[in-house]
Amino acid sequence: MKGALSWPFLRLYLLTLLYFSGNSILNVIIPLKGESLGASNSTIGLIMGAYLLTTMFFRPWAGGLIQRYGAIRVLRVLLTVNGLALLLYTFTGLEGYFFARVLQGVCTAFFSMALQLGVIEALPDKDRAQGISMYSLCSYLPGIFGPLLAIGMWQSGETGGMGLFAVSMIAIAILTGIVGFTARIGGQPDDTASGEEGRGPAGASGREGERRSPAAAMLRATIQLGSNPHLFRCGVLMLSASVVFGAVTAFVPLYAPQIQGGNAAVYLMIQAAVVVAARFLLRSWIPSDGKWRSSFVGGLMMLLVTASLAVGLSPSAGAALFYIGAVLLGIAQALLYPTLTTYLSFVLPKAERGVLIGLFIATADLGVSLGGIIMGPVSDLTSYSSMYLICAALAAAAALLALQRRVRQASSAS
Question: 223: domain range?
Answer without folding.
Answer: 3-189+214-402
